[in-house]
Amino acid sequence: MDKQTAQQVLSHPKFKQMAQQKALIGWSFSAVVFVMYVAYIWLIGTAPEMFGKPVSEGSITTWGIYAGIFVIVFSFITTGIYVSIANGKFEEMTKEVVREVQGEE
């Protein structure tokens, strides 16, 4: 793709709309994960006894282990959802704009 075609794609209204949607979703997912981590750290700092309680009588596994695993898995799932959307819907929208610009509709 030459510079002129790239510039046409970047200035295309559909591409601009897609870029705004992608940014909104990306920042939203980032905010959700950030809030999750902040809440986790805040609870550790303010109520450490909550995470130190054993899951069951005589168990060495505490609720903190499960909470930490949940935060990590939640982050992976959130990232996976974003990647799926970005590589699916948004990639297809970008290809559509490129086809329109190149006159291949």
Automatic annotation (TrEMBL):
It comes from the Bacteria. Keywords: Membrane, Transmembrane, Transmembrane helix. Pfam families: DUF485 (PF04341). One of its GO terms (cellular component) is plasma membrane. InterPro entries: DUF485 (IPR007436), Inner_membrane_assoc (IPR052959). The chain crosses the membrane at residues 24-43, 63-85. This is DUF485 domain-containing protein.
